[in-house]
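Go through this pair.

…
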Amino acid sequence: MASDPLRALSRSLLRLSEQAQQVAPQDLLHQAMQTLQSLVPFDSAWWGEVSAGDVQVAPRNWLHGSMGLSRSFAEEWNALAAVDLFGQQSMQQLGVVIRERDVVGTVPEHPDVAAFSQRHGLHHCMALTAELPHSGLMFFVSIYRPPTRPEFSDGETVLFGEFVLHLLQQWHHRLQRLQSDTPGRPWDRFALARPSGELLFAGLRISRALGEASPCWNGTHLPPAVAQALAGAPCTLSVGKACRLRLEPCGPLVAVSLASRQHKQALAPRELSAAMLYAQGRSHKDIAATLGLTPATVRTYLRTAYAALGVSNKLELVSALRHQ
C-alpha cells in the first residue's frame, strides 16, 4: 500500500484511541464511525450486536446504531435475515472483511433481500463481524454506497478491516472498565443503557430473556416497562412471568442484569450438546455437521456455555460439564 493510506490509517487509529479515552461511552461508537467515514468514505452505515442462526432460528440483530438509514432498518433486516446471504457469510467468517462481490454469483439473491437493498440504497456493501468476548454475541460494522458511487476498493477493504478490529478492541476495553464496578456480573447476563432506555450493550442471555418477556420487543431500546423503571435505580424489577432484573447506576448509564439466583442457569439443550462435543475434542466444523448447525452458530453456543458455566478454557469446561 502507498504511504498516504498508511498515514491516514495511523491518524484515524490515533483519533480512535483518543475518543476511547475522552468520549462518553454512549457517544463513542457513533463518533468512531464518523472517524471511519473520513478514512473510508461511505453514504450509510449500520453497527451493533447480532446472533447467528441455525436451521431452526434465524440470525437476529439485538441492538444497533446507524448513520443515513431509516429507523425501521434493523426490524426489516430481522424479518429477512434467514435469506440474507451477505449477512450470513459475514457471520461465518469472523474477523474477515466481506464485500458484496464475495457473495454475488454464488446463489441467486432472494427477491426480498434485493427489494430491501434497493429500498435503502445498499448497492456497494462492506462488512466485518467479530466475536464480542464473553457476551455470547457478535459485533458487526457494515457500510454502504449507492450505485452512483464506486465500489469499495481493495485498499479501502484493508483500511476498513484494520479500523473495525481496533474499534472492537477499544469498545471491549471500555465495556470492561464499566463492568469492573460489579465484577461478579456475567457478561451475557447484563446490559448497559442510557437513562432514556437506549441500549449500548447487551449479552445474549439477557437479550433472550427480554425477548421472551416482551414478545413485541425489537431491540435497541429496552422494553417500555424496563425503560420507565430506570429512573428508580437501584431497584429490582419483574418483567413477564420469569424475567427478574436488577437495575443499578453505572456512571452516566444504568446497568440492567438478570437477578442472581442460587444456581447457575442451565444450558439450553443445543448449547449443552455443542459444549459436550467440544469437550470431547470435536472441532467446530464437526460439531456443526453433527448438530445441523453452521460453524458460526457453534461458536455462539460455545461462547454462551463458557459464560454460563463461568469457565475460561476447555479443561474448566470439562470439569463444569461433569456437574451438569
In short: The longest strand covers residues 124-132. Strands lie at 44-51, 60-67, 98-99, 124-132, 137-145, 190-193, 199-202, 235-239, 243-250, 253-258. Residues 154-179 form the longest helix (26 residues).
